[in-house]
Amino acid sequence: MLSAALRGELVKILGKGNVSFEREALVSYSYDAMNRKYPPDGVAFPGGAGDISRILKMANRENFPVVPRGAGTGFTGGSLPIEGGLTLSLERMRNIREIDAENLTADVEPGVITGDLQAEAESRGLFYPPDPTSVKFSTIGGNIAENSGGPRAIKYGVTRDYVLGLEVVMPTGEIVFTGTRKTLKGVVGYDLTRLIVGSEGTLGVVTRAFLRLLPLPPAQKTMLITFKSLEDAAGAVSSIINAKIVPATLEIMDSVCLRCVEEYVKAGFGGVEAVLLVEVDGREDGVGADVEDIRRISTENKAVGFRVASTKNEVKDIWRVRRNVSPSLNRVRPNKLNEDVVVPRSRLVELVRGIRGIAETRGVLIASFGHAGDGNIHVNVMFDKTNADETGRGEDAVKDIFELTLSLGGTISGEHGIGIAKLPYLSMELTPDTIEVMRKIKRTLDPNGILNPGKIFSKERSPGYI
Question: For the chain, which residues score pLDDT lower than 70?
Fold first, then answer.
């Protein structure tokens, strides 16, 4: 618990309106998309790096946890204050400080909504590619903490590929700059930028990000392709990649997803077992050729429908199918274990076939969708937590899926991170020596273990320390 004296000190640092200990605030900041609740002892709303530096120095002196938080859209519990302490909400820090069209860079604060940055860049003929499904809600700071990807990763990469440098408040309160601000190259010292990106708020608090932008592609085409077999759809994905076509997005949805989302979009998916959503961009002539090649490949892989959007509204209608998959799944079961495994693209058919076998063996419903173009599939094991037997079979299925993924040369998390949800499975993929190196980095940068404790690593030491 935060004592009255500590509460008073926080009010002095931030001002009365920028820190709260009221029950309503504690409840509001107690959960994320993982939907487990861990109320903090207080919620702070800093206005800049100086505020955060003073808070972290105070936390080290008094030994209480500090948990950074973006918009709370994460699926692995990365922003949950599992040991109480102070939640550090960065929502006040939401300025797009600069977009430099000449150098193709952006300077933004961590609370900027990703979709807002994309819209601002596009209004100037520029393009910020990272595109998580939560783009309308998630923040740049949260995307950096999780190294978020999204549908465009197949062609454009993930968040780390667009971070030139960062302003970061270290766990012990120092304010440092990593990387560069406007240059594409820079090899002065260790690559601290890459160390911070994807560290899930355990190694520092990002307070400013210097990002790389691209010119906006002049042409784009969006396709919706239907199949009677999920394996045929997965085969089409492999065939598209083997044909040396690099779509901007290449998404897959199975029959469980389609059944759920049909109530939202009324797209007429009856008799269809799988759908691919494909987008190509670039020069007008190249985009047209890609569409025709994808049409041919889809036909060769037994597609039963091929639709090309001809208006912006049709593009929105097609994307509504994909964007509404995750929120619609509770129509078949009230609870889900949402995993984001990745396999080499050449093993996608084997993954799809294996997941189907696991569902049958364990007697559970599994919905699969996601970024097929880069082998990243979101596997949702559906269950009702009031049914202990079904819950147990669902948990067993998750472990089976991870074992299958690793046997295919894949990884157990492509963009959701580890947090607390995947913490028990970390050693399935990483060796003890690898994990110990990571622990040493954490201990060195956060000697008192106050920043986002209990995430990524299992607890082996005293409370508040990994």
Answer: 264, 459-466
In the chain the domains, ranked by start, together with CATH numbers, are 4-89 (3.30.43.10), 96-215 (3.30.465.10), 218-325 (3.30.70.2190), 333-416 (3.30.70.2740)
Written as six digits, the tokens of 191 are 């690559």
Within 10 angstroms of residue 275's Cβ, the number of other Cβ atoms is: 27
Q: Per-residue pLDDT tens for 396-436?
A: 999 999 999 999 999 999 999 999 999 999 999 999 999 99
**What are the residues facing 365 on neighbouring strands?**
382
Binning the chain into helix, strand and coil, the percentages to the nearest 5 are 40, 20, 40
What is residue 441's predicted lDDT score, i.e. its pLDDT?
97
Asked whether the whole model's pTM tops 0.90, one would answer yes
Q: Where are the alpha helices (DSSP H) in 152-229?
A: 153-156, 192-196
Residue 285, number of CB atoms within 10 A of its CB: 9
What number of other Cβ atoms are within 10 A of residue 305's Cβ? Answer: 14
The pLDDT of residue 459 is 63
89, 154 Cβ separation under 8 angstroms: no
DSSP bridge pairs for 89: 69
